[in-house]
């Protein structure tokens, strides 16, 4: 049977990981902490593990506590429509406060997540039977998945009828965007605490799940659909799973050339290169991991001779999962790629510029003036005046930058009513849909002309509420936008008239992902 993950906000705290690790005894110093440890053991450990690294519920570790509000309320009252029950009758306010303090304490040790533990966590659905054809009548390539963060579910939406075909529970706190198999049949979903779930869209059924890490950032699909890479903060590693059965194919520790252990900020698919590309959080390097059995050799050190049959070199890797190390000047995050995946654009730690790295030669070829924390992960491209341009929102200022990808010059900037987070477009539409998302104008969606770069209309159907993240249907005829609230909805617009045509109530819908747009790398879709 599937091992379900408790959808707990007590666990929101903790979705991920921090050096935590030895279990209850390591935290039992002092009478107050010992009392809290006993409360944890009695009420929490059965779901979240004796060592707080998770079990059927997410890991409860202090690295993420700073992002969570109202922890005491969640412990006391639980969370409706989830497996997180309230403990107000068992624990008084002082006990709850002590328990929260206990969870915030640093702990000794450096927890790992071994291949054996990964294998032990793997749970395949014994009731799953693959359907020979889709069990629904709609176009399987026009399915859109809607992530509902309000109660940790995904809705499977028919892109023609806009009917919900299925709604299934996900691991806690889905992050990084689902990834589809190249044929669009299967989708893989990852949570911040390292669980990866496989779902069969044709069968409308979960296939299984596995915990690939303790604190994970995102996943990426290989060019041939055989491998799924999981970027981990804890342990600092890249886990590579077989997409067939979710078994662990490789666990690659991430250590820089100077010996520094590094978290993996993100992993990206580079299908044209037959590789994964890794952003390292703590080291000035980019890693490329081959998904081609004939890749390499990649030289990691000194090369004396390249002469055929006479090669003299150190540190060579070749074949499937071989690593190529690209040394750069400073750590880069939040990558964006040219359509042919020859160039990578990343932001520096300060978020005040973009750097273009040519992956073929492994060095910087341009620098872009992009102050205001560009959010390159949501960048998109389109054709304008015979040139391909890219656009990116900025997280710290109300502007959208448009860059010519021929010479990396700044074409222009679109002033918006506040910092945005997501962009979407489609080859069939003249418009870019840009949310504001952050600040007083979070209730606005700008519609921008791709040629004039002028805002032609601003939608504001829910004053004061977050209105964000657009996604197009397969043919680009309709746009789906989220009312990003707990009692929210997905609004469906006619892409030509910009008129609302349907509204679907949902629980805090966030990202929406159309199968066709994702697997074909449709213009206007972030990758």
From TrEMBL:
Keywords: Heme, Iron, Metal-binding. GO terms for molecular function: electron transfer activity; heme binding; metal ion binding. SUPFAM superfamilies: C-terminal (heme d1) domain of cytochrome cd1-nitrite reductase (SSF51004), Cytochrome c (SSF46626). Residues 18-107 form the Cytochrome c domain. It comes from the Bacteria. This is Cytochrome C oxidase Cbb3. The lineage of its organism: Bacteria, Pseudomonadati, Pseudomonadota, Alphaproteobacteria, Rhodobacterales.
